Amino acid sequence: MNNAPAVYPATAPHGALRLADWGVIRARGDDARKFLHGQLTQDVEHLQPGVARLAGFCSAKGRLLATFVIWSPATDEVLLACSADLLPTVLKRLSMFVLRAQCQLSDASAELPLWGLAGPLAGVELPGTAWQLSPQEAGVWIRLPDAVAADATVTARYLGAGVAAPAAPALEAAVWAGMEVQSGVARVVAATAEQFVPQMVNLELVGGVNFQKGCYPGQEIVARSQYRGTLKRRSYVVAAAASLAPGQEVFHSADAEQPAGMVVLAGHAADGAALGLVELKIATLDGGTLHAGSVSGPLLTPATLPYAFPTEVA
Questions:
Q1: Are 79 and 40 contacting, i.e. CB atoms less than 8 angstroms apart?
Q2: Global pTM?
């Protein structure tokens, strides 16, 4: 799923988009890795130069405040790409815990503009496997997990940081967002901050949680969710009868009063069909119908998720 096909499918989206809804936090200093290692769900101390990783930042209650794509251009520097609408709040919160650590945190969004790329880029050697990165003259390209459409078409996705504007067709923001959905990789935005324990959005299934590393805020709750009992909530890709929005509640036909879940991400397929990554009570998939906003709202239909759940939580 993560290796680029020899011939890029003609039906797959192709183009580039300036990601105005993403931003970058820079952590720099002798203790930058050690500090972030103690704050995030990912092993930052052993982050290798040629790879990126997915990571979460949790509250003390184990709820995700943000998710990041992280990489390390130097031994004393770590970059964290996240949703722009929550960056100032997250930057302020992380800064509260620096104390005496030799680590300076700053907003590097203006210096490192981010681009989303679908498909190949003429004249540029792009990384061939998810989470590998390819340094450029100015910046880096990171291979993100592929998007898998309902017809099994695979779209290669890349995140560019600090690179020159790609010589590629313009890509619609809604289609890029739809590919985020089709990858099954959650990105927390301001509307969904503090709503989900990592497992509710499948973060551990896509490599965003390291259960062997040391403590971090909310670690005990995240570990308990993993090892005690059966998980009751997961996230699924759905096709929708109308456009969705992150933070929108989802209802099951059998219960008009209590929401059964929440929209994590929303976008559109290349053909314009509305898509969503939706966090749901697993039991709601056993029967009945799902709807956005209310039980009389747009119908949601389960679609393709590009990875399997562990047997015990399927």
A1: no
A2: 0.94
